[in-house]
Amino acid sequence: MISVARFIEYLACLAFAVITYKTFKFYLDRGKEASLVIKDVLNINVLISFIFIIAYLLTYFNIERLETSSLLYNASPYSDPTIRLRGFYVEGGPLGLLYCFLFILTFWLQGKRWFYQAIFFTVILMAKSKAGLVGVIAWLAYKFYRRFHNTVWLKPIIILLIVPVFIVAFTKIAQEYIYLLSNVDKILPNRLTDTNFVMGRIAAVFIAPNMFFDNTLFGIGLGNYALLRNNPEYLGMWPTVKLWDAPGLGVFISLLVDHGIIGFLLFCSLLYSIYKSYATASKQLILLFILISMLGVQLHFLYIWFLIGMALAFPAKKSKAVNE
Questions:
Q1: Nearest 5°: CA angle at 13, between 143 and 319?
Q2: Would you state the pLDDT for residue 6?
Q3: What region does 226 belong to: left with phi over 0, alpha with psi -120 to 50, or beta?
Q4: Rounded to an integer, what distance in angstroms lies between the CA atom of residue 177 and that of residue 200?
Q5: Phi and psi for 164 in degrees, rounded to 5?
Q6: What CA dihedral angle connects 204, 210, 215 and 217, to 10 degrees?
Q7: What is the phi-psi region of residue 55: left when phi exceeds 0, alpha when psi lies from -120 to 50, beta otherwise?
Q8: φ and ψ at 40, to 5 degrees?
Q9: Is residue 153 very low, low, confident or very high in pLDDT (cuts 50, 70, 90)?
Q10: Selection from 77-81, 102-106, 201-205, 292-296 with the highest mean pLDDT
């Protein structure tokens, strides 16, 4: 049933990409700017963001109880309470990635973007999303590089400045994951019933490679991670769980696990063909798709297909409707 449901989700994603493509194509063919569509999308999400921010502030100042909130949760059940915004997701990480996507999408707007960026970045901070922060920093570094990349003598200097800063920022933001992964054998016996630890990314770092090496060419099948996760051949030291689990390691790792090397190469070939055949704007959209995918977004997350539909809408070799 999970595989059937996942297949239907993928069909919905493809349909959404087509709708996005048709919408942008309609505007572009009539000489209108793509930023008009993007602005409408961002305005809707700004309104939703205000609801999230108000809910967070009401809880932070003890006007509302954290225990009864459907939009926030306690991210530190074993220590002092830590308020974390999750929106309509199960935890804050996916929400932060969504708002990382929205933050970066503002770079395709004409004119001032600071209002949108301030709102979306605030939500990322309230979600305490490490992946969301890394995504924002990576895109800002990329845009900084793009601004000066045509200056030959300045290019190596920029790279020498950006790379160490990004590594330090990434290490600082991801230090909790680094600590957990390096001490998992000591931590696991005390947190066998903690679903935040024994499910998701941390466990998948150990379980997913076992699945891949056992099914290298064709993978374990579409959406089958949750079904096979409790197999003793893959579990290793990890406990079985009754809840539905997802690896949370991003599009490309999920492709390798679900569809093996063949499925992975086919999908990468599709992205590469779009990147090579379409306009500069489309290339940047594909780069954004890759960045978000590497940070933990799953392929069945609807919003990343907005990028595919938008990328396909721009004509090859030119793009007059989007900022560089």
A1: 40
A2: 80
A3: alpha
A4: 12
A5: -65, -40
A6: 80
A7: alpha
A8: -65, -40
A9: low
A10: 102-106
What φ, ψ does residue 211 adopt, rounded to 5°?
Answer: -65, -45
Of 124-128, 190-194, 236-240, 256-260, where does mean pLDDT reach its minimum?
190-194
In the chain, count H helices and then E strands: 15, 2
Q: Which residue has the tokens 């991210």?
A: 75
3 state DSSP class of 121: helix
CB environment 189-220: b (16+ within 10 A), e (fewer): eebeeeeebbbbbbbbbebbebbbeebeeebb
Q: Is 113 helix (H, G, I), strand (E, B) or coil?
A: coil
The count of residues in the chain is 324
How far apart CA 203 and CA 196 sit, in angstroms, is: 10
Report the distance separating Cα 94 and Cα 86, nearest Å.
8
249 CB-near residues (< 8 Å, 6+ apart): 201, 204, 205, 208, 296
| Integer Cα distance of 292 and 98 in angstroms | 9
Name every residue whose Cβ is closer than 8 Å to that of residue 321 and which is 6 or more positions away in sequence. 27, 28, 32, 33, 34, 35, 281, 314
The terminus-to-terminus CA distance of the chain in angstroms comes to 44
- Decide if 89 contacts 95 (C-beta within 8 A): yes
The mean pLDDT of 262-278, rounded to a whole number, is 92
List the Cα angle 244/246/248 in 5-degree steps: 155
**Distance separating alpha carbons of residues 33 and 13, to the nearest angstrom:** 24
Residue type, 207: I
Amino acid (one-letter) located at 228? L
Lowest-pLDDT choice from 90-99, 130-139, 155-164, 275-284: 155-164
State how far the Cα of 116 lies from the Cα of 81, in Å rounded to an integer: 30
